[in-house]
Amino acid sequence: MMNKKFKISIFGVFLLTMMLFLMACDTKTQTDDHIEIPLSYTLMFDTDGGSNIDTATFKVGDKIELELTPPTKDGYIFIGWEPSVPTIMPAHHVTLKATWEPNNYKITFDTDGGSNIDALTLPYLEVIPEIDAPTKEGYIFSGWDTTLPDTMPLNGLTVKAIWTKASYTITFDTDGGSDIDPIVLSYEENIYAPLDPTKPGYIFIGWDNQLPDTMPAHDINFKAVWGKIIVESNETLRENFESLQAIKDSGQNSSEYMDYDYIGETYVLWELVNARIDLGMKKGGNAITIGGFGNIYTDAGMGRIYAAEIHDGLQSISFDARLPFSPKSTYPQVNGKDKAINVVIKVFINGELIESFKFKDDDEANKGKTFSIDNLNITGTYSLSIEVSSGHRLTLDNILWVTNKSGDTPESEPVVIDFETASNDFDYVEQVRTIGNIDFMMKEVHTLNMHGEKELAYMDSEVHGNVVARFRGLSTHYMSTESAYMYNVDAFDHVDTLSFDARLFGSNGYFTFESVINIYYMNDETSTFELLDTISDLTEDFVYYKTTINKSNVQIKIEVLYGTVNIDNIKFN
């Protein structure tokens, strides 16, 4: 019984001892306040946006030995860790944060020949200050090829200037001479000298400074230099072809149309194209007859007398002309086929058509007429050509001209309206139309489309171009009236004469022969148009008409009544 109790006591002591042992072991992991503490802790790395570094784990009290590769971060230099890496692992987790310093980068400015701009060095992401624009002679700064950022970019930047050539102006002070418009050119653009100005009584010497070949980087002003012309007496010269008699007497008289060179009563060398020298203005006279049979010099079919160089200028010119083979011809034969209505005489000066003439009728064509052109004001040396239209023959004599040595004839440039640029439809009410930079009030004047049979077939392209005006003075349209007209809105300073070509619109017998053209001027006192002239002898073909005006500060009205009429080449002299 006792042994049994003893055994139980021994077992109880053993069990108590084991419990105390286990409790002693457990107290090694507890603090005095009974909080459990781990045996290992982590060392963590916050790279603040840099490259990643793995976390490390150490036991409390372990010596920390790490071969750390420094982190990297675009635009920054690694400075170190905050706090610094401990040498012994403490009994807690540790977080280390990387510290950085921004790199310095450079912005380089390539001004492409402009003023220098120093390179800009700033820390990464530093705000970029405003940069002054560079300058370059002759150019305007248009910006950089790459837009400058607000802050310094990674690795810096190189930008290149963009330039646009600047424009400058050349002005011409003609010192009382004819106006010359300013010239606006880009820098280094080629400069072409304008036409020389003119000034009555003076000769243009040149400009006060030499024009450069190309535009410099600044505006330029030039002033005309003039020399006073010593006025010489003008001469009246006449070519009457009497020297042809010697050619005839030598046996070279020929009825064939040939080309001749001829120097007659003046110094002028005349080139006769398609000419015969056996016909005069009348039987036994001396003159030249030209035939419109075609040549290499003029339009197809035209014959001419031509002088390449006539000196001392030209104030006026006149000549006698007749049709030797008109239906009313009495010399050299009768019943010719050159009808006056079909023949056009053209006068060219320096290659420009100055005037076109026609005979009134066959009686006048047979008898002959003196044609004249005044107020030419041609200076220096010029060329002259008198031509006859295709298929016809014209006798010329007594070419008379007045020189213009002083070049100071005080005549203004004529205003010529040829309708080539006009695009007018029929206006049933008054409408302002601008032609040749001049405003005209118009009513029922048409220029949009030319009728093939009724207009184009009667137009000489050399004289009338591609467009003539159609004045519709009477129409069946309910809004139409019996009057078609045009007049200048602003008064002309002065008009000596008014001339134009006109014909009856129509074809194949369809013509309104009742049509008339009335010419009016504005009476300032009564503020009404007063009749100056009426033209009633209109024909199927174009005829040249001329009316004396001789009024200053004047408005001129051209009106068509009782039918439709074509009008072209209106000239206000």
Automatic annotation (TrEMBL):
Keywords: Signal. Residues 1-24 form the signal peptide. One of its GO terms (cellular component) is cell envelope. The keyword Ribosomal protein does not apply. It holds the Pfam family Flg_new. It is found in: Cell envelope. This is InlB B-repeat-containing protein. It comes from Acholeplasma laidlawii.
